[in-house]
TrEMBL record, chain A:
The gene is ACTR6. The keyword Nucleus applies. GO terms for cellular component: cytoskeleton; nucleus. It is found in: Cytoplasm, Cytoskeleton; Nucleus. Its main location: cytoplasm. It holds the Pfam family Actin. The keyword Cell cycle does not apply. This is Actin-related protein 6. Belongs to the actin family. ARP6 subfamily. Keywords: Cytoplasm, Cytoskeleton, Nucleus.
From TrEMBL, chain B:
It comes from the Eukaryota. InterPro entries: Vps71/ZNHIT1 (IPR039723), Znf_HIT (IPR007529). GO terms for biological process: chromatin remodeling. GO terms for cellular component: nucleus. The keyword Zinc applies. This is HIT-type domain-containing protein. The lineage of its organism: Eukaryota, Metazoa, Chordata, Craniata, Vertebrata. Keywords: Metal-binding, Zinc, Zinc-finger. Residues 122-154 form the HIT-type domain. GO terms for molecular function: zinc ion binding. The keyword Zinc-finger applies. The gene is ZNHIT1.
């Protein structure tokens, strides 16, 4: 009996058998204005030669799975003969869902997994629980940890104690990668070039060029300087999909600080946008979202926990999710949390090698755990008892 | 009469005298802000490329596909299935009826407002700003940015 581990995210799905490696695949469908009549699913994105003006169809809305039509098409593709060739009668599935998932969505997922796809057994679990499981496996002596999952739709901060999540401490900040990309699109469209339709390209710009500043006002000062003294400024060459396939950041030696470039490339000149965009994770109020930022929310969450556990939480802060890949993220979180935490507590912030796949790797370890058989709900259980058994067994 | 003509033309141009410029009240400003934030949640800003295409002929169900494999998928229940599985986020949230439930839930998990003072940035260039537009409440950092703001976004797209 094989186990398939699927970290079903709003932007990418991390999927793989527990005895094989993980694949990171977009969890949506695409339509292109140039290649009409065809809808591309998931990794068929690689077949599109010209991703300009790419139209996204996402099954998730605000982080919750609402559009089952699209999700089933993506899953059909992933489970089918082109990808993982799943033999449903002989496979268990470990699938992630967001915190406080709605009952109707949970029930729909049960139906689709057991009645439509007919998996032999299934386990529905939060992504953060898999990350916590992985962390506790590597650090046997620790009892408590706090998982920060900063993804596409939002950021969750969840304390875990002895493998169970502490529901009172769960905190959600409604800032995620999608918001950062959309904000970057808006400011570039206002200041330089109309790019509101170019989600794919600007997402690439965000990943290549943005970083988290360690001293916000100092960087703001440097960004206002002119010419060569402005160490923050970078020029980004936009792709035109004929000569330049992929956008890239011009190295400083080639930058032209006075006057225009001679070649016909389209250039974006980015100064404060580089660090002001990721700053939204730390200060959502900058843009008008009245919520606390990441370090404040971490400390707030820990303070809701019983006093004797608090020092243990501060010592075990784990950063997961795609947004943590910004350069300087981990150091900034450490600096801000250290400033807000009581001096006698030790603060330690860990960023794993691969924050995107960390939860998937936790799922892989869980599938190999001897207790795994008791945690899943088999298809026979479901057919006899219905949704009740899933509600009781899964702690979502 | 040429002198009278030019003065008359001047009145047609929107006056920059603060006494005569329209000022938005705080409810309108809040509505504008909410609309801007909602726009940031959108997946796409362009239209679906398939929307304008003529309706494609529906593919006929291919019965031979279903008969060859040994195990058959349970047939989905047609319209009922589609109706249930296509609700949008707001409808699902209301279905949950969280106001009557106890304990932590989706709504209580939302982060509280920050205790730190709010920072303001110029709406035009993004650098820290100290001044506010009288009419619409947008922030600006210098007179040049104020000029750009008046020409482009001030009082445009107001509800």
């Amino acid at each position: 009996m094989t186990t398939l581990v699927l970290d079903n995210g709003a932007y990418t799905a991390k999927i793989g058998y527990s005895h094989e490696k993980v694949s990171v695949i977009p969890n949506c469908q695409f339509r292109s204005k140039t290649l009409r009549l065809k809808t591309f699913t998931a990794n068929q994105l690689d077949e599109i030669k010209d991703p300009s003006g790419l139209f996204y169809i996402l099954p998730f809305q605000k982080g919750y799975l609402v559009n089952w039509d699209v999700q089933r098409k993506v899953w059909d593709h992933l489970f089918g003969k082109e990808m993982f060739k799943v033999d449903f009668a002989d496979t268990s599935i470990v699938i992630t869902e967001p915190y406080f998932n709605f009952t109707s969505i949970q029930e729909s997922m049960n139906e689709i997994l057991f009645e439509e796809y007919q998996f032999q057994a299934a386990l529905r679990i939060n992504g953060g629980s898999l990350s916590a499981h992985r962390y506790f496996q590597e650090n046997n002596s620790e009892l408590c940890c706090i998982v920060v999952d900063s993804g596409f739709s939002f950021t969750h901060i969840v304390p875990y104690c002895r493998g169970r999540k502490m529901k009172d401490g769960i905190c959600r900040i409604n800032v995620g990668g999608k918001l950062l990309t959309n904000h970057l699109k808006e400011i570039i469209s206002y200041r330089q070039l109309h790019v509101m339709d170019e989600t794919y390209v600007i997402n690439q710009v965000k990943e290549d060029v943005c970083y988290v500043s360690q001293d916000f006002y100092k960087d703001m000062g440097i960004a206002q300087l002119k010419g060569e003294e402005n160490l923050v400024m970078r020029d980004y060459v936009l792709p035109d999909f004929s000569a330049i396939k992929k956008g890239f950041c011009k190295p400083r030696e080639e930058m032209n600080f006075t006057g225009k470039y001679k070649t016909g490339e389209q250039i974006l000149r980015l100064t404060n946008e580089r660090f002001a965009v990721p700053e939204m994770l730390f200060h959502p109020a900058d843009i008008g979202i009245q919520e606390m930022g990441l370090p404040e929310a971490i400390v707030n969450s820990i303070n809701k926990m019983p006093e004797e556990m608090q020092p243990h939480f501060f010592k075990n802060i784990i950063l997961t999710g795609g947004n943590t890949l910004f350069p300087g993220f981990r150091d900034r979180v450490y600096k801000d949390v250290r400033a807000l935490a009581p001096t006698e507590f030790q603060v330690s912030v860990l960023q794993p090698q691969n924050p995107i796949c960390y939860a998937w790797e936790g799922g892989k370890l869980l599938a190999e755990n001897p207790d795994f058989e008791e945690m899943v709900v088999t298809r026979e259980d479901y057919e006899e008892n219905g949704h009740i058994i899933c509600e009781e067994k899964f702690d979502v | 009469m040429p002198h009278f003509g030019s003065a008359w033309l001047q009145c047609l141009v929107r006056s920059h005298d603060p006494n005569q410029r329209r000022v938005l009240d705080s409810a309108t400003r809040q509505r504008r802000l909410t609309r801007q934030l909602e726009a940031l949640e959108k997946d796409n800003f362009q239209d679906d490329p398939h929307a304008s295409l003529p309706q494609l002929v529906k593919r006929l169900p291919q019965f031979d596909e279903n008969n060859e494999s040994g195990k058959r998928r349970k047939k989905t229940r047609g319209d009922h299935f589609k109706q249930r599985f296509r609700k949008n986020f707001q409808a699902l949230l209301e279905e949950e009826d969280l106001s009557v439930s106890e304990g932590p839930n989706y709504l209580t998990a939302c982060a509280e407002p920050s205790k730190l003072p709010q920072r303001h940035f110029c709406a035009v260039c993004g650098f820290p700003s100290h001044y506010t537009c009288v009419s619409c409440g947008a922030r600006y950092c210098c007179v040049r940015c104020l000029g750009t703001h008046h020409e482009t976004r001030c009082l445009k797209w107001t509800v």
